[in-house]
Automatic annotation (TrEMBL):
Subcellular localization(s) per the UniProt record: Cell membrane
Designated name of the protein: Branched-chain amino acid ABC transporter permease
Keyword vocabulary terms for this entry: Amino-acid transport, Cell membrane, Membrane, Transmembrane, Transmembrane helix, Transport
Molecular function GO terms recorded: transmembrane transporter activity
InterPro entries in the record: ABC_transp_permease (IPR001851), BCAA_transport_permease (IPR052157)
Gene source species: Pseudaquabacterium pictum
Length: 291
């Protein structure tokens, strides 16, 4: 029983990271109705920026954290305005090719500027903190707290601010949004900026666990994608819950059924199964359109 509880709680800790990645994917999907395959590489590049500020420039962790989030937001906005705006009305396949190209570019830039050696990334939460427990480390609990803060901040932003309401309107009905004066293209850019910022938070939270290298987020992006689909690709809270479920399933099946070597197949099976049986996810909305 003790071992089972440990696997469940460890899975929840992993699911926190998957949920934050899933949240970033949902932000992009709500804005563009596309999946950003470069999300993991963008998060990794942002984490390298934070690492350089902390270890080479001598910044404190939280100063580097907030600066990196701001830089990532600006970077995501610029990517949308410079790279993606010209292909807003292009076919889906064109967007997919561009996303894959961005993945390769950010991966190559991370290796070129920061090299391919594995680097350690310090946690801002000390091991002997008062909230350290038997089943959760202080970093895992701290990461959960950061994700909860991000989730509530997004909820408040989209529900109570004029910009957030405009972004929701632009995502749900861009034609009607244009008629009332909303600059839809800029709203898409803000969505990309928010997604990049959330991805940076996820990268900085996961780096102390898996170490930092240009391919750090490759597998994690797959788990995050599975969580986003399972919870509902158009539902931020559902995506976070889906990430937690994926984390627990991955740990339990890896420990007791398929072995740790095949844990990544859990994400693949969940992706295929969700798309086949329940494409809207557990908490997604079924959209019916007249044709």
């Amino acid at each position: 029983m003790e071992a089972l509880l440990y696997q469940v709680f460890s899975g929840l800790a992993n699911g926190i990271i998957y949920g934050s990645v899933a949240l970033a994917l949902v932000m992009i999907y709500q804005a563009t109705h596309h999946i950003n395959f470069a999300q993991g590489e963008m998060a990794t590049f942002s984490t390298f920026i934070a690492w350089a500020l902390i270890n080479e420039a001598g910044w404190s962790y939280w100063a580097a954290f907030f600066f990196t989030v701001a830089v990532s937001f600006a970077g995501g906005l610029l990517v949308q305005r410079i790279v993606l705006k010209p292909i807003e009305k292009a076919p889906v396949l064109t967007n997919v090719i561009v996303f894959i190209g961005l993945l390769l570019i950010f991966n190559a830039l991370a290796g070129m500027f920061f090299d391919h050696t594995i680097k350690s990334f310090a946690s801002p939460f000390p091991k002997d903190a008062w909230f350290d427990t038997k089943y959760f480390s202080s970093h895992q609990i701290g990461s959960a707290g950061v994700l909860v803060v991000v989730l509530f901040a997004l909820f408040a932003f989209f529900k109570y601010t004029s910009v957030g309401l405009a972004m929701r309107a632009a995502a749900q009905n861009p034609d009607s949004a244009k008629l009332v004066g909303i600059r839809v293209s800029w709203m898409l850019g803000l969505g990309w900026g928010l997604a990049a910022a959330i991805g940076a938070v996820a990268g900085m939270m996961v780096a102390p666990i898996v170490f930092l290298d240009p391919n750090m987020m490759a597998g994690i992006l797959l788990y995050g994608f599975a969580g986003a689909l399972l919870g509902g690709i158009d539902n931020p809270l559902g995506a976070v819950i889906g990430g937690l479920v994926v984390g627990v399933l991955e740990n339990l099946l890896g420990a007791y059924v398929i072995g740790t070597e095949l844990k990544l197949t859990v994400a693949l099976v969940l992706i295929v199964g969700t798309l086949t049986l329940r494409p809207d996810g557990l908490f997604g909305k079924k959209v019916v359109t007249r044709v």
